[in-house]
Amino acid sequence: MQKQVCTLVSTTILKDDTNSKNQVRLCGVPYTALPIATLVSIDTNLPMLIRRKEQKTYGTKKLIDGEYSCGDDVIVIEDVITSGASILETVVDLERSNLNVSNVIVLVDRQQGGMQRLSERGLKINSLFNITEIVTILKEEGKLSDAVYQSVLDYVINNQIQPAKGCEKPLRTKLEFKERAELLETSKIAQKIFKISLEKKSNLCVAVDVDTADKLLDIAEKVAPHICILKTHIDAISGVTDATINDLQLLAKQYNFLIMEDRKMADIGNTVKLQYKKLVNWADLVTVHSVSGGMMLKGIQEVINENTDSLDSRGVFIVAELSCNGNLISEQYIKETVKIAEEYKDIVAGLVCQSPDVISSPSLLQLTPGVNIKNANDNLGQQYQSPSDIILTKGADIAVVGRGIYQDDNPAEAAKLYKESLWNTYLERISNS
């Protein structure tokens, strides 16, 4: 019987032409679907990945085991679906490993709302059987009485999975920037980002990670017409003076973009407060780690409040996930980071992350680095993705491009190309909602 079932799954996969375009892997939802996925892997000759429920505390500490590359398609296999929660958990972990879930195949749909929940999440999902078909066949074969048959159908109807609180609201990625900017809980700095993006039709942030002040200003001037945010590492650039900062601010005013200092502050509240006083007068945004907790943001908040008369708006992006291999950020760390962001929504513009499910609130922006049209990775663990991966799969609102632009022979043309590609992909995302 198990072999027959696995053959049905294999046939479903092989007859789907969409699965032949990219490199495909299989992943069974742990743990009951693993034997099924294993047999299907052997039958179809498609490689298999294993998703662990618990992260290893040793070695690479990976949740996803197996050989794969960034952007590979994964077909998720499950035995039974009720709410779809276990499938969603697997999908999220796969996406956080830079994989694309192209399809979900379920043996039995209990018809209690799980299929609809996954479809609303944007997943393509197929079931081989549903509970009504099964009990109907059993009844016709004399294996079930009329009373038992009807009790099963009544149970399904009376025990539908209710959507989680707030699920009736539009998903963040489905809303237009204009709608999100008008939300009451959206911070002033987030509203400003939305406004600039809409005016310039750009959700491009360029990271100018050069080594001299002259190079910084040169690249900044070339990309300025095409960006909403310019990201700097001022402390890594030689020759920076007050004149450099002044010229950068003049460019920002002239070409209507924000400056973000990617300082990733992560100290105790008082120390961060002292550090931020050196940045607040020229950097519209600063990046921080949440490792030291909310008191760090309180320190930043106090500095901003002290300067409200002289500054239009200031804020932070909190790093919730990293795009490099081997980073030590855990699932629990991400959840706690989101809590801190929601607690300080008045100054938090959004989160730096790689997954569409990290941010649920439409008032927070998702900033995602690691975009490069030409390269998939570098030799130091950086994983790159395409504009489509970043906006559609990863859920980014603002995408960060660095070397793909500032190392190009023509940074201005490269910035224009990325700007148009990213913005058109954003328009595609909201039009498909």
Care to describe what's here?
This protein is α/β, with parallel strands linked by helices and 433 residues long. Helices cover 40% and strands 17% of the residues. The protein is built from 16 helices and 14 strands. It has an 8-stranded parallel beta barrel with strand order 7-8-9-10-11-12-13-14, surrounded by 8 helices. Helix 11 (269-276) links the parallel strand 9 and strand 10 (285-289).
Give me the number of helical elements.
16
Structural class of the secondary structure composition? alpha/beta
Instruction: Report the order of strands and helices.
Output: HEHEEEHEHEHHHHEHEHEHEHEHEEHEHH
Radius of gyration: 24 Å
* Low-pLDDT runs: 164-169
Task: Give the rounded overall mean pLDDT.
Answer: 88
Global outline: elongated
What is the end-to-end distance? Answer: 40 Å
Approximately how much beta-strand content do the residues carry? 15-25%
The helical percent reads: 40-55%
Task: Record the strand order, biggest sheet.
Answer: 7-8-9-10-11-12-13-14
Number of strands: 14
Main pleated-sheet profile: 8 strands, parallel, barrel
Indicate the multimeric state. Answer: single chain
Quick gist of this model?
The protein is an alpha/beta fold.
Q: What descriptive keywords fit this protein?
A:
single chain, 433 residues, alpha/beta, 14 strands, 40% helix
What layout of secondary structure does this protein have?
Layout: H1 2-14, E1 24-28, H2 34-44, E2 48-51, E3 64-65, E4 73-81, H3 85-96, E5 100-109, H4 114-120, E6 125-130, H5 131-140, H6 146-158, H7 177-181, H8 188-200, E7 204-207, H9 213-223, E8 229-232, H10 242-255, E9 258-265, H11 269-276, E10 285-289, H12 294-306, E11 315-319, H13 331-343, E12 348-352, E13 365-368, H14 387-393, E14 398-401, H15 403-406, H16 411-431
Parallel strand pairs: 1-2, 1-4, 4-5, 5-6, 7-8, 7-14, 8-9, 9-10, 10-11, 11-12, 12-13, 13-14
Antiparallel strand pairs: 2-3
